[in-house]
UniProtKB/TrEMBL annotation:
It comes from Clostridium gasigenes. This is Glycosyltransferase involved in cell wall bisynthesis. It is found in: Membrane. One of its GO terms (molecular function) is glycosyltransferase activity. Pfam families: Glycos_transf_2. Residues 6-174 form the Glycosyltransferase 2-like domain. The lineage of its organism: Bacteria, Bacillati, Bacillota, Clostridia, Eubacteriales. It is a multi-pass membrane protein. Signal peptide: none annotated. The keyword Glycosyltransferase applies. The keyword Membrane applies.
Length: 318
């Protein structure tokens, strides 16, 4: 029997936490009773610098039930960092970790299948949404657009997979080798490799509370994903430069012909238009390159991705 940990990042989740804990407790109890996992398996909540009562709820859960544990980050670092903090903190304590969101939008009954695949020898099991019915039209179409763009740019990520997955200790040890600060776990995990499989499930709506991913965060997350994993945008800048160069040669030929024919005074529109257009393209290219330079700047500083304030868990010795 293996020891499985669940890692649940939480940011201002006081409205859902008690219910989530109740459901997870039931799930874990059934798994333990069925001898799918051993009795030392735990549920670890990672408090990502919440401003509400999240941490005190976690402390209370831990005090009342040895199943629960908690990690408190020193401040809000965002979902990806909170998740990584959880994974890296518990990886040496257990055989595999399943990560899931605090709002239980991801069907927890799939955990059985995750564990089944793990016993079959998979080091990574991805939870994949079978549909996006519970999403708004806007979220659905932007998400699909994102997957198309990222695929076009040559990044290998699993379609419709969020961060609901099982990773074995071996896979987590390898994940720890990826030192990048610009964190996009969905892109990094497939790079880890090993035998993996997919389990599909239907995603529900949040049963309480609001999404902590407003549009602004979602766009920057998508942008982060693209620029952390692909240098194709820079290459497109080069392609654009080449196209501009050849079109300017054609334009030059045209200008020479008009000059020979004596029509040189006209053409104010062409001059002005090309100045604006070229200026625009140059700024755009500078922006794209600047984005990568910025990324390098952040990477070289290699600041810690998270700082742990407290880790509370009931030890195994009784
Ligand atoms: N989350 C976090 N830090 C943040 C934002 C979100 O740890 O800065 C957690 C949040 O508590 C939840 C998970 O990340 O458990 C996913 O967030 P949410 O459900 O709001 O995103 P959505 O499902 O709407 O994409
Ligand atoms: Mg959610």
């Amino acid at each position: 029997m293996k020891k499985i940990y669940l890692v649940v990042p939480c940011y201002n989740e006081e409205e859902v936490l008690c219910e989530t804990a109740k459901r997870l407790e039931l799930k874990m109890k059934t798994l333990i009773d069925n001898k799918d996992i051993n009795e030392y398996s735990r549920v670890i909540f990672v408090d990502d610098g919440s401003k509400d009562k999240t941490w005190s709820i976690i402390e209370e859960l831990k005090n009342n039930n040895e199943l629960f544990g908690g990690i408190k980050l020193s401040r809000n670092r965002g979902h990806q960092n909170a998740l990584l903090a959880g994974l890296m903190t518990v990886k040496d304590e257990c055989d595999a970790v399943i990560s899931l969101d605090a709002d239980l939008q991801d069907d927890i009954n799939v955990i059985d299948k995750f564990i089944e695949k793990f016993y079959e020898g998979c080091e990574v099991v991805y939870g994949v949404r079978s549909d996006r019915k519970s999403d708004t039209f806007f979220k659905r179409s932007t998400a699909q657009g994102f997957y198309k763009v990222i695929k076009f740019l040559g990044v290998d990520i699993i379609y419709n997979h969020a961060d609901y997955r099982l990773m074995s200790r071996k896979a987590l040890d390898s994940l720890a080798e990826f030192k990048e600060v610009n964190l996009f776990l969905r892109g990094i995990v497939p790079l880890v490799g090993f035998k993996s499989d997919i389990v599909s499930y239907e995603r529900n709506e949040r049963f309480a509370g609001e999404s902590k991913y407003p549009l602004k965060k979602m766009i920057s997350f998508a942008f982060e994903g693209i620029t952390s994993f692909s240098v194709k945008p820079i290459r497109l800048v080069l392609v654009m430069g080449i196209i501009m160069f050849f079109s300017s040669l054609t334009a030059l030929a045209y200008f020479l012909v008009t000059w020979i024919n004596g029509y040189t005074v006209q053409g104010w529109t062409t001059v002005v238009a090309s100045i604006w257009m070229l200026g625009g393209i140059q700024l755009l290219c500078l922006g794209v390159i600047g984005e990568y330079v910025g990324k390098i700047y952040i990477e070289v500083k290699s600041r810690p991705k998270y700082i742990i304030d407290q880790f509370i868990i009931k030890s195994e010795e009784k």
